[in-house]
Amino acid sequence: MTDAVLAAEDLTYSYDGGAPALEGLDLVVRRGRRLALVGANGAGKTTLLLHLNGTLRPRGGSVWINGRRADYGRRGLTTWRQVVGLVFQNPEDQLFAGTVAQDVSFGPMNLGIPIAEVRARVDDALESLDITGLRERPTHMLSFGQKKRAAIAGAVAMRPEVLIIDEPLAGLDPSGADHLLAVLERLTGAGTTLVLATHDMALAYAWADEVAVLHGGGIAACGDPADVMSDAALLHASGLRVPWVLDVDTRLQAAGVLGPGAGPRRSRADLLEALEALRQPASSSVPQC
Amino acid sequence: MHLIDRIAHGNRLAARSGVEKVVFAIGMLALALVLPPWPGAAVVLGVMLVATLVVARVPLRAYAKLMTGPLLFLAVGVLPLLVSLEFGGAWLVSLAWAPDGIELALRVTARSLAAVSCLLFLSMSTPMPQILGVLRAVRTPAVVTEVALLIYRDIWVFIDTVGGIRMAQASRLGYRTLRSSYRSLAMLGASFFGQALQRARAMDHGLQARNWQGELHVLDDAAAVSLAGLAVVVTVQAGTVAAVLAWAAA
User: Fold this and answer.
1) Which of B129, B206, B217 is nearest residue A98 as measured by Cβ atoms?
2) Residues B144 and B233 in one domain
3) DSSP class of residue A172?
């Protein structure tokens, strides 16, 4: 538990007059790891995320940041949001300033750091999201994918220890999605702990070090993606499905086409590589001319 | 709205300092109001047309389109100046050409056109973020600039929202008859209000996530005011005054 940068313990929350949205939820976010939070629509993902950065205050239970119980006072929230960056699903909810650079500068400006440092952070954030060219572009003249990246840059510029992104790939075209995944890879490489909330099972399976299944206001299962995601019954009950890569891989192994391999095949690329390897001995042993 | 904004961000003067453009437009506006309408307003109008169409390269069609509104308004406003009411006579009240009507109408028209051309120059050459930068620089209360900023930002979101709802309604025949149009419009209004509230809440969460402390501070990397730019502005303004005075004296 010592490497837990963020933890939720027995969280309970209900919106005014509604059924409980979270009920006795426990979650640990380990430093430097990639955590995928998967859950069906209405499972309470967004509610949980709003608890993880102190926007909502639980009715019961508590949130822990770097081993300390969360402080909901003004100063506590300020440090909290420095540690935990949150990017919402709809970038429109986050972009308010006239230009991209101005919007990205908003977070750093609120940290009360010197202007030169703000400037450096804005440059870095734009650079790492690959949108330096959009600096002076008014936010309403961006495409959806660009808005998404600008919104993430706004959180990255605050240099959070944990960056939580709600549905990062929703609404992006395939190349935009690849691009964003490359950006996330870079952030992980730079030491940022990443949490993605998603119901894209293939993404969660391919990307995460750890998966937590959110269902009925609690964590129904959590752990290694290969373990959690092979439990078809549990996923089904949570409104989710086994990722197709895992499904196909299991069937191919059952049919004796593929062996177990060195480790679980997580992505389309892994699977194709394994299939390609089957063909190669045949073609190399029979030279054509 | 989209048109003005696109031009403001794309014209040849877009990257120049907002201060230079604001000083130019406001200065010329003052001249349009202070100098005698003939030839003062005419000269101001000429200078502003050149500044907007030639220097900033605003397309003539867009300019004409944006000028139409004020022109119609002006035409309606000027008509009453041409006539006067006379009491008495067979009809008790009768209409007649006002004695100085034409001259008065021409003067008002010239002055208004000149003033409008100054404001059009400003709105078509200066992106909103620059104008806000200038307002902040002259210490306008933060409340005013922040509200202006949020309105500017939300206009685009709301245009999209309303457009989306309207399209969804129209594609289910919501505007087929006058009756259904009224009903659809009412529903659009109601749903828009709800969405605006939701948007406010979402925006609040979004700002809080970035440590919003109640003020919207952002880095303002505006183009620096260049002395050369200001010199050009002042020269043109002085030239305008000189031209008008010389013309009036001749």
Assistant:
1) B129
2) no
3) -
**Cβ-based burial of B70 (10 A; exposed 0-12, middle 13-18, buried ≥19):** middle
Query: Rounded to whole angstroms, how far apart are CA atoms B11 and B127?
Result: 10
What residues does each domain of chain A span? 4-242, 243-289
Nearest to A141 by CA among B152, B208, B151: B152
CATH number belonging to the domain at A4-242, selected among 3.40.718.10, 1.25.40.10, 3.40.50.300, 1.20.58.1370: 3.40.50.300
Which residues from chain A sit within 8 angstroms of residue B206, using beta carbons? 88, 93-94, 96
What pairing do the DSSP bridges indicate for beta strands A84-87 and A162-166? Answer: parallel
Q: Which ipTM score applies to this complex? A: 0.74
Q: How many CB atoms lie within 10 A of CB B152?
A: 20
Q: What is the mean pLDDT of residues B38-48?
A: 91
Partner-chain contact B129 A115, CB within 8 Å: no
Does some domain include residue B155? yes
- Chain A interface, mutation test: which of B150, B197, B207, B210, most A Cβ atoms within 10 Å? B210
User: CB A92 to CB B153 under 8 A?
Assistant: no
| Chain B touched by A58 (CB under 8 Å) | no
Question: At A8, is the secondary structure helix, strand, or coil?
Answer: strand
Nearest residue of A to residue B199 by CA position?
Answer: A93
Count of residues in chain B: 250
**Section B109-136 average pLDDT:** 93
Number of H helices, E strands in chain A: 11, 10
Distance from CA of B197 to the nearest CA of A (A): 12
pTM: 0.81
Nearest by CB: B203 against A78, A93, A140? A93
Q: Is the residue at B216 inside a domain?
A: no
Q: Predicted confidence band at B214 (pLDDT cuts at 50, 70, 90)?
A: confident
Domain range for B227: 2-126+223-249
Residue type, A63: V
> Mind telling me how many Å the CA of B21 is from chain A's nearest CA?
18
Residue where the block lists tokens 């939070």 = A37
| Closest residue on chain A to B155 (Cα) | A140
